[in-house]
Amino acid sequence: MNVATYLENSAARHPDKAAIRFLGDSITFGELNAASSRLAGGLEALGLKPGDRCLVILPNSIRQVTLYYALAKLGAIEVPVNFLYKVHEITHIVQDSQPAAFIGAEPYLEEISKVLEGREAPSIRLVIGATEKSGFTPLDDQFSGSADFATYPADDNDTSHILYTSGTTAASKGVMLTHKNLARNAKIISEMRGAIEPDTVIIGVLPLYHIYGITSGLNSAMYMGLTMELFPHFDPEKVMEVVEREKRTLLFAVPTMYNRLIQLAVARPPASSSLKFCISGGASLPVEFLHRFEALFQAKIYEGYGLTEAPVCIENPYGRPNKPGSIGVPIPEFAARIVDERGNEVDGGETGELLVRGPGVMKGYWNLPEETNRTIRDGWLYTGDIARTDKDGYYYIVDRKKDLVIRGGYNVYPREIEEVLYQIPDIVEAAVFGLPHKDLGEEIAAVVHLKEGAAIATDEIRAFVKAKVAPYKYPRFIKITAEPFPKTGSGKILKRELRERFETL
Q1: Following CA atoms 491, 497, 499, 502 in sequence, which dihedral angle do they give, to the nearest 10 degrees?
Q2: What does DSSP say about strands 159-164 and 137-138: parallel, antiparallel, or unpaired?
Q3: pLDDT at 391 over 90
């Protein structure tokens, strides 16, 4: 089925209910459905066809949501790109995806204009906002089609999106997700959490160029017919206002966002909390964050797990014991297992690579058949994450396979050390990684960002960790930075940049 069907169904059930609220503006389900149909017709009139790729560089907005469902209805493939990307990042995506169309926002045209200069493709170039740049046509001129536009009848194998991985360690890969992947995933995660009251508001702080925001936020809201309060970017003060104002809310966020809400709530405790529950994903949630947040906001955080190649596949089950530090159990229709280097399943409690299988697993990597075959084998997606299970079948992420540090023959998982560092109240952010060492191969290093006004010596930090872990695990090299850590648009800490900066900190 076409993923836009969820919007159409909600528009039929309650056309006058607010679908998206954004910076004081609002659009109902009926209005959003009609606008996306008209835009789909306008894009079709320009020559955009089912299967064509459309590069999109837009921040969160009502127009972005409208375009999302317009492209789905048309059967075109959206290639969403972080609007903060620079020329070298965009160039790879354009060269690889060969889009037929580009749609962006006026404030973010400088970098893409450099990439598109002198290129024949994409032939359709539209922009939101005033346009003084030659070669771009106002997007708002394209809302000329019929509101009765016939939605493309997508089958199970029709690609809806190509999302490029962040490329923090290598050239980014285009992940092909089908309408079935996105529709089934949104349906499963919406239904597995029990009945959600119709007046519940989803707090939309995640970027809609990222799979977490697309699946857990937008498509789930459309499936359930819930209003989404959408933000252009994460602002803890604004989120707190919604939490205090509304009757019931849901929050889908990444650990960095929960951390910033914790810091705000410590300084100014919320007058009330409407949070029904929260979901954390995108990166591992430090246990200390979970405990602090739940105490301050009186709301449960259910940590889950997903990746661009399989958006949501494991989560702590709603209504069952929530195990701090665990990503939970496979969600309905999904399965998981842990294997060793030879592909053999390991015993419970032992570590190995996490494999997942289910209807959300990607179609494959765009233009990379060999990489696809290495990543998906016999229907199982090899995630590259090191994990273990406990006696109850709950899964725990130990670390990324590529982040493993081998010090003198001993395996050290940075996440374990970061969990210890977060037990120090003055530490706001922590990152652990390996540095080259001529004798040991690698040595453990850590960068920490302290609370404003905090004063703690590196020797104190080192001694604290040393007392809690095996002798080969504690960081010998520690740097303190006054600056927040560099992050991806979805809030993941860029360890590669921290590692490269280490000597200059």
Answers
A1: -110
A2: unpaired
A3: yes
Q: What angle do CA 402, 78, 46 make, to 5 degrees?
A: 155
Residues forming beta bridges with residue 427, ordered by sequence position = 450
Q: Helices 29-46 and 62-74: crossing angle, nearest 10°?
A: 60
The Cα 361–Cα 306 span in angstroms is 10
Decide: 76 and 50 in contact? Cβ < 8 Å: yes
The one-letter amino acid at 341: E
Distances (CA, A) of 148 to 35, 130, 343, 502: 10, 29, 51, 57
DSSP string covering 283-303: S---HHHHHHHHHHH---EEE
**Alpha carbon distance 252, 231 (integer Å):** 13
CA angle 351, 170, 383 (to 5 degrees): 30
DSSP 8-state class, residue 231:
-
Supply 284's token pair. 């591992």
Reported as type and span, the H/E element at residue 21 is strand 18-22
- The H or E element containing residue 432 is strand 427-437
Nearest-angstrom CA–CA distance, 146 and 144: 7
Least trusted range by pLDDT, from 89-93, 372-376, 390-394, 409-413? 409-413
Query: pTM for the complete prediction?
Result: 0.86
> What distance in Å separates the CA atoms of residue 479 and residue 185, rounded to the nearest whole number?
41
Are 78 and 218 a contacting pair, CB within 8 Å?
no
